[in-house]
């Protein structure tokens, strides 16, 4: 998987949660200097550091990589109940996202 896509997804998650690099470092247990270097110099993220960052977002590595595997279809986005989604707590969002990705991959396999 391309490192830049991983960094972009991490930045997207940070923006969604309104986290700074400092907050990501604090919640993941990775030093602030390491997190800053990863994003500033676009360094390769080790699997270990990625797993710590994912854990901070309450994601497994599998869930994170599933998010990278494909963009949602436009018609799915238009029908998505955004108001409902924004009212969910992060843990419930993670669970619903996991179910949605699993269902979408099963549907794609049937085609």
Question: Can you put this structure into words, describing what you see?
Answer:
The chain is mainly α and 111 residues long. It is 74% helix and 0% strand. The longest helix has 21 residues, at 90-110.
User: N-to-C SSE series?
Assistant: HHHHHHHH
Radius of gyration: 15 Å
Gross morphology is globular
Number of DSSP helices? 8
Main pleated sheet: none
In what range is the share of β-strand residues?
Answer: under 5%
Uncertain spans: none
Report the structural category: mainly alpha
Distance between the termini: 25 Å
DSSP, total strands: 0
Instruction: Tell me the helix content.
Output: over 70%
Mean pLDDT score, rounded? 83
What's the short story on this structure?
By secondary structure, this protein is mainly α.
What's the structural blueprint in terms of helices and strands?
Blueprint: H1 3-17, H2 21-28, H3 32-40, H4 47-56, H5 61-68, H6 74-79, H7 82-86, H8 90-110
